[in-house]
TrEMBL record:
Source organism (scientific name): Salegentibacter chungangensis
Domain of life: Bacteria
Task performed by this protein: Catalyzes the ATP-dependent phosphorylation of L-homoserine to L-homoserine phosphate.
GHMP kinase N-terminal domain residues: 64-146
A GO molecular-function annotation: homoserine kinase activity
GHMP kinase C-terminal domain location: 207-284
Iron-sulfur found in the keyword field: no
InterPro entries, alphabetized: GHMP_kinase_C_dom, GHMP_kinase_C_sf, GHMP_kinase_N_dom, Homoserine_kinase, Ribosomal_Su5_D2-typ_SF, Ribsml_uS5_D2-typ_fold_subgr
Reactions accelerated catalytically: L-homoserine + ATP = O-phospho-L-homoserine + ADP + H(+)
Protein name: Homoserine kinase
Similarity comment: family membership: Belongs to the GHMP kinase family. Homoserine kinase subfamily.
Major localization listed first in the record, in broad terms: cytoplasm
Length: 298
């Protein structure tokens, strides 16, 4: 019995929702092959595309599945193959794709003892290993699709939000690596009341705009005065990229997850292509290799 799956990339934070908001891309992601074995052993049997640990205690997919099997009290063995297309340290949920993909496939092969929402908690164990913090803003949308909002971590409660039809995401991935662990370490732990007010106003407005298909409001809500001003220092040409995307008609622009990827949210395919071309045109003159993606949110 085996299952081949697509494990999607995700964009977390979306500027106004640090650690609570994320969305799922529909054409960027890894492939995984998971099959039952008769050895009562969990094994990572093959990894392509990236140098990652094969040891299950050191691999995010291994750790996530172990926590699921432990909860179930099951000693069923599995072999997991991971074919990475998303680079580690890219900011589009590489570790989340592996963690979420692995628990999703194992759960299916076990005849679905857990709901997709319950699987998030196991996938978060992979995130704990990857970044030192079990944040769910990548694994939740990877498992639920569309937009997810983590209402609270304790008790854990996550909501699915609607995804307006015309939304498109353009992602620029400058090929430098920023580890989530490092880009979390530089964030200040305290927030002023003035900034907190601005942030929850924007997050509330963003959620409202998803329900009302208000594209302009979506764009105006993609702001962050708390985390992005600090993290953007690590991203080459960040301010220029923001200008280039907005001049080409993007609704909003920001850091994807913990960077170095940046995202431009766009309305409609035509505008997204224009934004993508403008970014490519600007970045090709810089000294950094890059990848560009254009995706629906699904
Ligand atoms: N919310 C997490 C962070 C996402 O920004 O650190 C990491 O992809």
């Amino acid at each position: 019995e085996e299952l081949r799956i697509f494990a999607p990339a995700t964009v977390a934070n979306l500027s106004c929702g640090f650690d609570v908001l994320g969305c799922c891309l529909d054409n960027v992601g890894d492939e995984m092959l998971v099959r039952k074995n008769n050895l009562n052993q969990l094994r990572i049997t093959r990894i392509t595309g990236e140098e990652l640990p094969m040891d299950i205690d050191k691999n995010v997919a291994g750790v996530a599945v172990l926590s699921l099997l432990k909860r179930l009290g099951s000693d069923q063995g599995f072999d997991i193959e991971i074919h990475k297309k998303i680079k580690s340290g890219s900011g589009i949920g590489s570790s989340a794709a592996s963690s979420a993909g692995a628990v999703f496939a194992v759960n299916k092969l076990l005849d679905e003892p857990f709901s997709p929402k319950e699987l998030i908690l196991f996938a978060m164990e992979g995130e704990r290993l990857a970044s030192g913090n079990p944040h769910a803003d990548n694994v939740a949308p990877a498992l639920l699709g569309g937009f997810s909002l983590v209402k609270s971590y304790e008790p854990f409660e996550v909501l699915s939000l609607p995804s307006p039809e015309e939304l498109r995401m353009v992602i620029l991935h400058p090929l430098i690596e920023i580890r989530t662990k490092d880009s979390r370490a530089i964030i200040k732990q305290n927030v002023s009341l003035v900034k907190a007010i601005a942030q929850w106003g924007n997050l509330g407005a963003f959620v409202s705009a998803l329900y009302t298909n208000d594209y302009d409001l979506l764009g105006r809500s993609l702001k962050d005065e708390i985390v992005e001003p600090i993290r953007s220092i690590l991203i080459p040409y960040y301010d220029r990229l923001d200008e280039v995307a907005m001049e080409a008609g993007a609704l909003g622009f920001g850091i994807s997850g913990s960077g170095p990827s940046v995202y431009a949210l766009c309305r409609g395919e035509e505008n997204a292509v224009k934004v993508k071309d403008a970014i490519a045109d600007f970045y090709k003159d810089q000294d950094i290799d890059f990848q560009l993606h254009l995706s629906k949110i699904n």
